[in-house]
């Protein structure tokens, strides 16, 4: 089961309901128009099959403001990310779409800024489950 700090005493057993609660709390704190906040949503998952660790899900870098985001949204998000990933105890999981050249990964670039020897960051490719990512057979020309 799971519990949120902002919903004291309520146990969530349906993880679809957990997802909805995260969206609802995000909208409550940031507004429903793609705002951001450095106020964390604290979720605790209880299971005999999970490690005791703290996971911080940070926003991806936004290049162009949308909704009511401020003009300097990219700088704000970068500052927020750096606040967390520069901690010595942090293990960085830099998520990059699988169809992106890793040399163009903003996530890996930020990770390298705080760990220039490349000892800490762990890269993770994402997009294999997205419908727009399809592997096609080479043509016989």
From TrEMBL:
<dbReference type="InterPro" id="IPR045063">
    <property type="entry name" value="Dynamin_N"/>
</dbReference>
<dbReference type="GO" id="GO:0005737">
    <property type="term" value="C:cytoplasm"/>
</dbReference>
<dbReference type="GO" id="GO:0098793">
    <property type="term" value="C:presynapse"/>
</dbReference>
<dbReference type="GO" id="GO:0003924">
    <property type="term" value="F:GTPase activity"/>
</dbReference>
<dbReference type="Pfam" id="PF00350">
    <property type="entry name" value="Dynamin_N"/>
</dbReference>
<keyword id="KW-0342">GTP-binding</keyword>
<dbReference type="GO" id="GO:0005525">
    <property type="term" value="F:GTP binding"/>
</dbReference>
<dbReference type="GO" id="GO:0008017">
    <property type="term" value="F:microtubule binding"/>
</dbReference>
<dbReference type="InterPro" id="IPR022812">
    <property type="entry name" value="Dynamin"/>
</dbReference>
<keyword id="KW-0547">Nucleotide-binding</keyword>
<feature type="domain" description="Dynamin-type G">
    <location>
        <begin position="1"/>
        <end position="141"/>
    </location>
</feature>
<dbReference type="InterPro" id="IPR030381">
    <property type="entry name" value="G_DYNAMIN_dom"/>
</dbReference>
<dbReference type="GO" id="GO:0005874">
    <property type="term" value="C:microtubule"/>
</dbReference>
<dbReference type="GO" id="GO:0005886">
    <property type="term" value="C:plasma membrane"/>
</dbReference>
<protein>
    <submittedName>
        <fullName>Dynamin N domain containing protein</fullName>
    </submittedName>
</protein>
<dbReference type="GO" id="GO:0031623">
    <property type="term" value="P:receptor internalization"/>
</dbReference>
<dbReference type="InterPro" id="IPR001401">
    <property type="entry name" value="Dynamin_GTPase"/>
</dbReference>
<dbReference type="GO" id="GO:0016185">
    <property type="term" value="P:synaptic vesicle budding from presynaptic endocytic zone membrane"/>
</dbReference>
<dbReference type="InterPro" id="IPR027417">
    <property type="entry name" value="P-loop_NTPase"/>
</dbReference>
């Amino acid at each position: 089961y799971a519990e949120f700090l902002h919903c004291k005493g309520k146990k969530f057993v349906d993880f679809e309901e957990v997802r909805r609660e995260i969206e609802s709390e995000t909208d409550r704190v940031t507004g429903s128009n793609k705002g951001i906040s450095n106020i964390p949503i604290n979720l605790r998952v209880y299971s005999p099959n999970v490690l005791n660790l703290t996971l911080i899900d940070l926003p991806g870098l936004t290049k162009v403001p949308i909704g009511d985001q401020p003009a300097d949204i990219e700088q704000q998000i970068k500052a927020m990310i750096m606040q967390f990933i520069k901690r010595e105890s942090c293990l960085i999981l830099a998520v990059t779409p699988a169809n992106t050249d890793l040399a163009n990964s903003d996530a890996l670039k930020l990770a390298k800024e705080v760990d220039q020897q490349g000892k800490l960051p762990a890269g993770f490719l994402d997009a294999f489950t997205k419908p727009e990512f399809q592997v096609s057979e080479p043509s016989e020309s």
